[in-house]
Design a protein that fits this description.
Rossmann fold, GMP Synthetase, Chain A, domain 3, nine-stranded mixed beta sheet, binds adenosine-5'-triphosphate, 16 helices, seven-stranded mixed beta sheet, alpha/beta, globular
Length: 509
């Protein structure tokens, strides 16, 4: 299982060996590895001949999840070009910023985003997925370009969702993505070994993709490694809808689902009795804190299905999950995010960069072959985030106890209340133990004496709980200074970004 490919173009060749096996499956389409390779090769040829796209040039992708998104990504890799995954929720103004920032030679967009690009006032050539791509692919079928690519050449730019400021373009190299693929090849082989299948054969896993492809959790973890393992990626259409997703799990015999905690809370409100979920054997909760309360309720809800519940922690900059918590580790500590995955070293550091002993809280720093090259066109931000030995400063705070990482929260979310520090996550976890609380957000609001005080926004069904009840509930679990002083209970959904994460700065306290 050792590393065999030096770049994504070499990995692409592997896909030819998987032939007619499913690669990209949607509710109404089924594209095999062979069909995908033909389409991506033809598109790459068209981009080179018609638009003069060459090595290092950027190819923008601005679309909802479709097979064409993936085809465009791999066409870029055949040319040694850089695929830029723009956030499909971006408005004309935001996409104008993205285009100015990464200056693509051409943008491949779905019809809805193509219209938005027309409104953005930029002159970049746009190819639509619905009309232009099928025509170009039909015209150039037959050839698959092969560029000379070095391991440290950039392969992709993904933007951080910008929950803490302006989005930054995170650059991952071929080396980063091949390493992520190798990790998945290893875990898929491990799963195969449990069922007695050959270690190096194609994997029978089927992965559900419910997050946008411009998000690392989908592209790096679900879609790219499948070329190395021969497994399928299954995409529901449209915005997240529990019924649709469950029907697709049943119909396509999905085995693995990587979800975000918000999706899990929607699952809790849904009647599961009408679905056959027996194929599902792994459900991971990623990208945001999942409170022990939520995990317990989810385990109860899924008690009839043999599914392993795991959590993981990572960020766009870290390239893939940095730590994963297996069911065993969660049984030992429901608040942990597990241990570093193969290849990752995690250290907790003080503000001066010195490593701290176990149990002490500090900044989580990560070193691994998956960590980004840097930020696109921003040497100052890169230097502030990655040091000379390639340690990544995550901006998250946490502790390591018995080898397991616990996240306290983000530096930027910390509430400074009269000399005491309050991490919103800890308070949210406590509040989400209350059965009436669907979700909660804890924020710092200005206070004349204390600097900041703690405010809570609670999502609950109308009339099911009062602020006084919640205050008493919190006071039993938290030190006095962490108990929210201001409360707002609402049935309205919280403001979220494209990956389902709460945009804290848009929450009304
Ligand atoms: P930006 O970096 O611009 O604010 P973002 O928060 O959406 O955008 P991502 O890279 O998608 O950027 O998110 C990574 C962050 O999410 C981590 O740094 C961490 O704060 C948080 N996170 C991810 N997984 C977990 C987890 N299991 N528990 C707690 N927090 C998590």
């Amino acid at each position: 299982l050792a590393h065999r490919h030096r770049n994504l173009r070499e990995l692409f060749d592997v896909s030819l060996t998987w032939g007619d096996r499913d690669y990209l499956v949607t509710e109404d389409r089924r594209i095999s590895f062979a069909e995908h390779a033909v389409a991506a090769g033809a598109l790459a040829t068209a981009l080179a001949r018609r638009y003069d796209v060459g090595k290092g040039d950027r190819i923008g992708i601005y679309a909802a999840n479709t097979p064409e998104w993936v085809i465009a990504f791999w066409a870029a890799q055949c040319l040694g070009a850089v695929a830029v995954g723009y956030n499909a929720w971006w408005t004309p103004r935001e996409i104008a910023y993205g285009l100015e920032h990464t200056t693509p030679t051409v943008v491949i967009a779905d019809a809805k985003r193509a219209a938005r690009l027309a409104d953005s006032g930029t002159g970049v050539p746009v190819l639509t997925m619905e009309q232009d791509l099928p025509a170009l692919i039909a015209e150039y079928v037959g050839d698959i370009p092969r560029a000379e690519i070095a391991e440290d050449d950039p392969a992709v730019v993904l933007y951080t969702s910008g929950t803490t400021g302006r989005p930054k373009g995170v650059v991952h190299s071929h080396r980063n993505l091949v390493a992520v693929s190798d990790y998945h090849r290893f875990t898929d082989a491990l799963m195969a070994s449990f069922t007695g299948q050959p270690l190096d054969g194609p994997s029978d896993r089927r992965y559900l993709v419910t997050l946008p492809l411009f998000h690392i959790a989908s592209l790096h973890n679900l879609v790219v490694p499948r070329l190395a393992t021969g497994a399928a990626a299954v995409f529901p259409h449209g915005a997240f809808d529990v019924d649709r997703v469950l029907r697709l799990i049943e119909q396509e015999r999905v085995t693995n689902w990587a979800a975000v905690p918000t999706m899990a809370s929607r699952l809790l409100e849904h009647d599961l009795s009408g679905y056959d979920l027996s194929s599902l054997n792994a459900l991971s909760l990623n990208s945001a804190p999942s409170s022990p309360g939520l995990q317990d309720r989810l385990r109860d809800k899924l008690s009839g299905v043999q599914v392993a519940l795991t959590t993981s922690y990572g960020q766009t900059e870290s390239g893939t999950a940095a730590t994963v918590a297996t069911p065993l580790e969660l049984a030992a500590d429901l608040e942990c995010v597990g241990r570093p995955i193969i290849g990752v070293t995690v250290e907790i550091r003080d503000p001066f960069g010195a490593a701290l002993p176990d149990g002490e809280e500090g900044e989580i720093c990560i070193r691994s072959p998956y960590v980004m090259l840097g930020y696109w066109n921003d040497d100052a931000a890169t230097a502030a985030t990655i040091d000379a030995e390639r340690w990544l400063r995550t901006g998250d705070f946490g502790t390591i106890v018995d080898g397991r990482l616990r996240i306290s929260g983000r530096r930027t979310d910390l509430i400074l209340r009269g000399g005491e520090n309050v991490y919103p996550t800890e308070v949210e976890y406590a509040l989400e133990e209350h059965p009436a609380v669907h979700e909660s957000v804890v924020l710092g609001v200005e206070h004349p004496d204390l600097g900041q005080e703690v405010a809570a926004v609670i999502v609950a069904d109308p009339g099911t709980v009062t602020a006084d009840e919640l205050r008493a509930f919190a006071a039993e679990r938290l030190a006095y200074f962490k108990v929210p002083a201001r409360w707002r209970i609402t049935a309205e959904p919280l403001p979220r970004n494209a990956s389902g994460k709460v945009v804290r700065r848009d929450v009304e306290p």
